[in-house]
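tool_call: predict_structure(chain=1)
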Amino acid sequence: MKTIQWGILGCGGIARKFASSAQVVDSAKVVAVASRSSGAKARAFAEELKETHGDVTAYDSYEALLADDAIDAVYVANTHNFHHHTVLLALQAGKHVLCEKPLTVNARQAMECIDAASDSGLFLMEAMWTRFLPACRQLMTWIEEGRIGQVQQVSAGFGFNGNWPEDGRMLNRDLAGGCMLDMGIYPLSFVSMVAGGQAPVKIQSQSVIGKTGVDIDGTYLLTYPDTITAVCKTSFSVAIDRDAKVIGTKGTLSLPSTFISATEVRLTTEKEDATSCFLCKEDEAFCYEIEHACECIASGVTDSPIMPLAETLTLARTMDTLRDQCGLRYPADET
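tool_result:
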């Protein structure tokens, strides 16, 4: 398969995790990085990658990187509030795009990006890396095989007290901070995956807004067609259970410990008790989504069958409703 040449837009921690993971994917090669605000930051990042990736070109702007004809695709790794503009910029430059979650701040922006990708015939995917973990793929296989019967209940949680500084990104309303878009999106996406990407028919939010104007705790109750009910929890202020569970009419599936980096999935029914375990190194955990993106791009597939754009849009609409219920609005919602 053709090796996809990647550029990274943004030089923060998530960009480093992408680069670490890409180095173990034969079909991916990081060849360039760019910073929106600092050429020095891009050069330092490129130098940091030299030992594992070879020569990596540092660009002083996103536009300069996107003008490089050698680059096939870009990974958008900047803050949430810039995703919409950066994705559109990349698509207009003719680059395939893998954008860190959330794809955009709201559903209106997501629709604009999806339309732009469709018009250009380019690959676009929200980088929900947990979808591609072997444990999650095995869980979905067992559900599709009917091993636990008809799914009835789903629960998932992710959150902890990170002692976030009030002037940092996580609590900054202007940067679309808050626990839903940063952490809560993981259990919400897990539930959506199990429900087959369907839109919930009932949505209820119980969220706490902190003094910086963003959500710091959230519990979300969702009802889907086919009598599936779900509970999602997230928090910036307390440590909560980080497992995920799917209960069906014939049994239960669970991702124990921290489900977003699950290395095992357990199946329990009246007739069987099975566990599948998988190796997943933390600093290489993005490798499965990167490999999938490369396969799609190389084969001309523009919409991932595992993280389809229609589901990204549905999830964005769900989060819009949850935010409306707790009165959380970002600057992007006002334009």
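agent: Residues 309-326 form the longest helix (18 residues). Proceeding to next step.
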